[in-house]
Amino acid sequence: xxxxxxxxxxxxxxxxxxxxxxxxxxxxxxxxxxxxxxxxxxxxxxxxxxxxxxxxxxxxxxxxxxxxxxxxxxxxxxxxxxxxxxxxxxxxxxxxxxxxxxxxxxxxxxxxxxxxxxxxxxxxxxxxxxxxxxxxxxxxxxxxxxxxxxxxxxxxxxxxxxxxxxxxxxxxxxxxxxx
Length: 179
Known about the structure:
83% helix; rod-shaped
């Protein structure tokens, strides 16, 4: 059965292509006339006969239907691509909202009183303690210190810890869209 179905589908496809090609020939010829250069190259009469004209008139609806079907397939394909892009944009939006939420949490987590304590500490002692605490909290504290104090404390930190805090602060301080 599948072999028969394949043969039938193939035959229909051939008929459809032939009909489309012939309809194209009919339309390309303008008022059902074949161009002189084409007629000379193919040795086709310059004027179409009544039979050909009638055949073209009979298959015009089938050709139009086939053209609409092809256009509908293309539109469906475009719709699928648009849906995929919308899904990708929604994922980016969710990522952005997550980033924004984490940023707010980091800023809120550093209470002013804790910041005041670290602001009054010696820079080497503050650096030592900030290195040992959660990086996000340490970054929030450093972010709320004034620039001079933050620079001195980061200078006293181990280079790797200072770089990690600086990276977090840079990510949080970005004013542009992270995407």
